[in-house]
Amino acid sequence: MSGTGGERCRALLAGPADAARPFLQGGMSHGDLHRLAARLHAHFQARRGEHKGLCLASEDRALCAAAILAALAGGPTLLLPYALSLPALSSLHEAAGCRLALAEAGRPLPAGMEPLALDSLPASAPPLPQNPAQGSILGLFTGGSTGSPRIWSKTAENLLGEGFFIAAHYGIGAGDRILATVPVCHIYGLLYGVVLPLVSGASVCAHTPVFPEEMAKTVEETAATVFISVPAHYHALAASDKRLAPCALRLAFSSAGMLDERDALAFAQANRLGIIEVFGSTETGGLATRNRFRGEREFTMLPGLDWQAGADERLMVRSAFLSPELPRDEAGWFHTADRIQPTSGPQFRMLGRADMVVKVGGQRVDMDAVKRLLLAQAGVQDAFVAALPESGSRENRIVAAVAGTASPEALRQALARRLEPYALPRLIRVLGALPMRANGKYDREAMLALFAER
Fold first, then answer.
1. How many CA atoms lie within 13 A of 186 on its CB side?
2. Which one of 87, 129, 237, 413 is least enclosed by Cβ atoms within 10 Å?
3. Which phi and psi (to 5°) does residue 213 adopt?
4. What Gene3D superfamilies does this protein's entry cite (predicted)?
């Protein structure tokens, strides 16, 4: 950990500047949060080696923040599932062997995973040690639709360092009130809705509104100054013509997929506030931003990050926020799967993805993995999977064509047992053979025509 990052983490472990300031609006204070973190840390210190990490299966932002503090102090390594559904938690349990979960009462957990009972924690505990953990404190499980589960590590410098950067870059502090419409189980929701208030001293709304009326009402009731949302929710706001009530709102962020320009401009016109679009990924952290309300059509790389375009047009980056497992070349560059065209200064234009990972409803879907699952089914000789834009939006829908004798319904049922709903092909066409070009490659245009006007 860098010297500055280490100092900030030690100061964070030492306790809040104002212990009485609320962390949850109308709920737990920053001081209460630190005391809960100390109890969690003491509990796990007394049981070292008993558990392979602690699964964050809770929507309670304060609980998750306390767990992060405990992990920073050398407590349990945390594991964040990609969803709180039983299939997602089961996949995490199978992949990581995690047997303990921080979960609300009544949440279904897979066999072999037990909830951590908060009443089993010591009633009081010594303050957290001010010696930040050097290794991974959080594992991000992204196995939802890939068929090949993967856990990306985040060190304190990765996770908390990015939180400190966001707070300093945008001037977010103790006077801010954050409202997030993104669940904690999404890294974007965890970073902006848990880590950011934790490191900045701000407060965060305990509620996670998702409907336009809910969002507008909660912004007004909490006098939110920072709004954290995703493209799907901004689209819903635009479609409902719902204006956020006049308030102290001064910052709005969007990530987890590309924001439709029309939705961005509709929000800006209704609220006189531009949306800061954050470009990045689970593994890389935030890389670049743009604000269309300011006339920015291209992305601008965040300060402090090294970047360049490779010979294959792929974006190459060097950043303190990169997960340790990411491969680097001899010069330390990580080659992303995003194709870019540098324009002027720190700006670049997005050209698309070089791989087959797309976002559907803000969630990652690996189309190659969907194809592998199709090919594993009886009566399937070949398969083609694609992402098509939804009419009137920038969202994607997955479609598939297969060669064989299997029925579309049987294939849907088989895939539903392995994939999250957002990763399921919306349409499946069964053919005698897939259209091919003379050079032996798939005739993509012919196959996409199979789904036109359907």
1. 22
2. 413
3. -60, -40
4. 3.30.300.30, N-terminal domain of ligase-like
Closest of 159, 151, 192, 141 to residue 71, by C-alpha? 159
Alpha-carbon torsion angle 436, 439, 445, 447, nearest 10: 20
146 secondary structure, DSSP code: T
Average pLDDT over residues 228-237: 90
Report the predicted TM-score, pTM, of the whole model to 2 decimal places: 0.80
**Cα first-last separation, the chain:** 53
The string of pLDDT tens digits covering residues 74-114 is 988 999 998 898 988 998 998 888 999 999 988 999 999 99
Instruction: Write the DSSP assignment of 324-375 as a string of letters.
Output: TTS---TTS-EEEEEEEEE-STTEEEEEEESSSEEEETTEEEEHHHHHHHHH
- Sketch out the chain's domains with CATH numbers: 3-351 (3.40.50.12780), 357-449 (3.30.300.30)
- Residue carrying the six token digits 């200064």: 345
DSSP 219: H
